[in-house]
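User: Okay, second chain of the day. Same drill as before: sequence in, structure tokens out.
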Amino acid sequence: MKCICIAHNFTENSFAAMSYNLSYKLASLGNRVLFISHRPRFEKPLKIPVNQGEILVYSWPSEKRPTNFKSFLWYLKLYLKFKPSITIGHFVGSNITGAVSKILSLFKNTTIVYYHTLSSQINTDNNSKSIIQQFRFIRKKIFYEIFCDSIICPSPLAKIDLHKTYFTKKGVVIVNPMLDRKINEVADKSKSNYTISYLGRIDKSKNVEFLVFAFIEFKMKNPTIPLKLRIAGAGSESKKIKEITNKYQFIEYLGFLPYTEIDKFIQSSDFMIIPSLHDNLPTVGLESLMNGTPLLLSNQTGLAFFLTDSYDSFIFEPTKDGILNVLERATKDFETINTLKINCRKTYKKYFTMDSYYDKMIEHIEHLTR
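Assistant: Same drill. Structure tokens below.
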């Protein structure tokens, strides 16, 4: 029985469902999966039999980010107990699991980590010239060079960003999947009012402030178009966005939205808009495609590589003029929405299903371990 370690969140209530379901798939093939869960945190380990394999779920020793020496020693002991031959790491959990697995296996362990966030996005939202940021860059560059066999890039844009930033050719494009939660078929119905919605972090790289000002200008020029903007999310610019939107009846700011309400929010929208200045493969974009809700999508996102303008989305430059233009295009003929909805589902099924993800990950693991 091969032991495979996955460091992520053991839950289906987020995009971490990709790892949750992958663990079941790998276990069903006769493997032992050692799953290190950051959230939710389990007080006692879980043992889940799956066909000829099993999933063992452990949690880090505290609810804080696993970056300290205590977490290092904890995983060192866990590694010596189970000795996984393959390690798959997401976010900060990949640092300790990847380094310890490599060192204790005398570099025989196959280590795969994820490149979820673009460096260009991090630099926009943080002070890239600070000493702390420079230290983190050097540390990550060393980690990629010494302790990683493969770096999964969820989009071609991420692979470009990885190579440009860290000068490594270890990037491999395997898109993140989205669990299919859609129950009802797309319904064709006439409406008198239309809604464009934004859902996500309210940070500088997400370009929400530009979106708000562009929408206000659009409504001032087109007061008779029955269109409103909804914004849900939280972040460093939340207070600013709330103060601006409170002045206008045609913009609604909802604040943080629980994950259980996301599908309903997306399904009640005519378009979801992603105006990001830099973004890898935004999860809300995948959720929108899965729910059959067309996207107004920035061309500076990795998701734009997989969508087709005027087929399943309207793609635009994330500038004020670009946003104004895409709002005009989206509202020119509302009758096209139902066709776009159908095509969204087709695009989702073509690229972003769980089964497609399983096949590509298993193929990649087999390639690395031959």
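The mean pLDDT is 94.

User: Thanks, on to the next one.
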